[in-house]
Write a structure and sequence with these properties.
CATH topology of one domain: Ribosomal Protein S5, domain 2
CATH class of one domain: Alpha Beta
Oligomer: single chain
Strand order of the largest sheet: 5-4-6-3-1-13
Distance between the termini: 15 Å
Order of helices and strands: HEEEEEHEHHHEEEHHHHHEEHEE
CATH architecture of one domain: 2-Layer Sandwich
């Protein structure tokens, strides 16, 4: 993202002066999908694509915001009834309200922002936007007194209350806590986290974007969450210690198989197995065993497609191409219903894989998948 470009737009659309620049990244998730809202483990990393915003207090009680990418301007107040109509502005408004509720005396400000996180590709552009503004408002009006854990919760609460998606904490956590050349194993139940060095020798991480824009439908996402909560509640009647599905075992799930629907059982089976896969991958990375990492990625894709049913034809097709080309690991990444596969590819296979994926995908769907090479990067920060 070009700093000078964002600054030039800010100067043009406001009073000709400059403010302060803030950035937050999107993220990849190596493994651990749909486990965050089940209290499980995830394994994300921040990337070198994100959101960049310039902010400057304007001495009023209004926020004046300009989306550079959408070429759209919105002005809104900071009161509880001032929610703007534009969807993108609701994210900024929601962050403002959540910071105010935490005691930060947010005042009016001018802002312009842009991003290079591909929309709909599962790299969490919304979390990058929320984290940028949570971090910025904490710096500008909060005296940096809100701790990073709480800033991640600000973004999550914004999704819940103002956008209508009951997301977990992973996306915002990765955007705030990202660290160059490291992935983060996050325990979504306790928010305990551990960094794992990830700069694999001889391998590359590449995302292939189906360009399918099945938006992450709130109803489908929330329905799966309800399935998980239903099964966890059923298991809890026999095992009071089970707060989330993360706390359950497959033996516990089998005990209640006749008490839950077949669909709810499948959803729960996927989550319980996925929680264990994250731990298996962490152990594999500690011994530089990338073949095991890749095998677990394929297992995750199978579970997301067959049990959790959040894949789609195009994602399954790209996953099959990866297997045919000998790619070490491949799976759907993100919430599903479109977006990207994430692929762990040996350097010597990279060119062949990309060539085959583009050719075969184009032959079948009439367009090429987009290719994003990702570099693990730092989290939310001020750019002075």
């Amino acid at each position: 993202m070009e700093l000078d470009f964002v600054r030039s737009r800010f100067i043009k659309h406001f009073d000709g002066s400059t403010g302060r620049l803030f950035a937050s990244p999107g993220r990849i998730n190596l493994i651990g999908e749909h486990t965050d809202y089940n209290g499980g483990f995830v394994f994300p990393g921040a990337i070198d694509k994100g959101m960049l915003a310039e902010l400057k207090p304007n001495g009023t009680d209004k926020v004046r915001a300009y989306s550079i990418d959408l070429k759209d301007y919105v002005e809104f107040g900071l009161g509880p009834d001032d929610i703007p109509r534009a969807t993108w502005a609701k994210y900024i408004y929601g962050v403002c309200r959540e910071m105010i509720e935490r005691g930060v005396e947010v005042q009016g400000f001018n802002t312009a922002f842009a991003g290079d996180v591909p929309l709909g590709a599962g790299m969490s552009s919304s979390a990058a936007l929320e984290s940028t503004y949570a971090y910025a408002l904490n710096e500008l009006f909060g005296g940096s007194r809100i701790d990073p854990f709480e800033l991640a919760k600000v973004g999550q609460a914004t999704e819940h209350k103002y956008v209508g998606v009951k997301c977990g904490i992973m996306d915002q956590f990765a955007s705030i806590f990202g660290k160059k050349d490291h992935l983060i194993r996050l325990d979504c139940k306790t928010l305990e986290h551990k960094y794992y060095h990830f700069r694999p020798q001889g391998y590359r991480l590449v995302l292939l974007d189906t360009t399918v824009k099945h938006e992450l439908a709130s109803s489908a996402y929330n329905k799966r969450r309800e399935s998980c909560e239903t099964v966890a509640a059923c298991i809890r009647e026999r095992h009071p210690e089970v707060e989330f599905l993360r706390d359950a075992s497959m033996d516990m799930l089998l005990e209640v198989k006749d008490q839950v629907s077949a669909e709810d059982y499948m959803r729960a089976q996927y989550v319980i197995e996925e929680v264990q896969r994250v731990l298996d991958v962490c152990e594999a990375l500690e011994r530089d065993d990338y073949e095991t990492v890749g095998r677990k990625m394929y297992e995750t894709h199978d579970g997301m497609s067959r049990l959790y049913e959040v894949s789609c034809e195009e994602l399954d097709f790209l996953n099959a191409i990866a297997q045919d080309c000998g790619v070490t690991g491949s799976r759907v990444m993100g919430g599903g219903f479109g977006g990207c596969t994430i692929n762990l590819v040996k350097n010597e296979l990279y060119d062949l894989f990309i060539e085959h994926a583009k050719q075969r995908y184009c032959e079948k769907y009439g367009r090429e998948p987009k290719v994003y090479n990702v570099i693990i990067s730092d989290g939310a920060r001020c750019i002075d």
